[in-house]
Amino acid sequence: MKILIVDDDDIMLQLVAHQLRNLGEYNVIATTNGKNAIKLAEKHQPDMIITDLLMPIASGSELVEYVRETLKLNTFIIVVSAIGLDNVRKEALEMGANRFMTKPFDLKQLMACIQEVNALSQAS
Questions:
Q1: How many CA atoms lie within 13 A of 114 on its CB side?
Q2: What is the pLDDT of residue 124?
Q3: Alpha-carbon torsion 18, 6, 114, 43, what sign?
Q4: What pTM did the predictor assign?
C-alpha cells in the first residue's frame, strides 16, 4: 500500500512516516507542503493520503479537491488538523476526506485506522 503523508510540521511528518516504515508493509512518501503533495499524488497515485489541513503553498483542502476532482482517485484520505471545530470536520468530510482526526491525535489510533483500511483493501 502506497501512503502519501503531508504535514508542514516536520517532526509530526517524520514521526508518522517512521512508524509506518517500521511496520514494513507500506511504501511511504512524505512531503511538507500541498504543492509537492499534488505532484506526488499525480506521479504515485497513492492508496492513502494523510494530510494536514493548513499548510503553506497549497492547503490540504486543495490537495483533497485535486485528488477527487482532477485525478478522480478513490484514495482513502485522512485529514488531520489542530482545528477540531465541528464545521472544519464537516467541511473536510464534505470535500472528500474519509476520516478527520484532531491534532494532537493518538498515534496508535492513526495506525489502527491505516491497518484497518489496508486489510479492507487487501480483502477486496
A1: 26
A2: 65
A3: negative
A4: 0.92
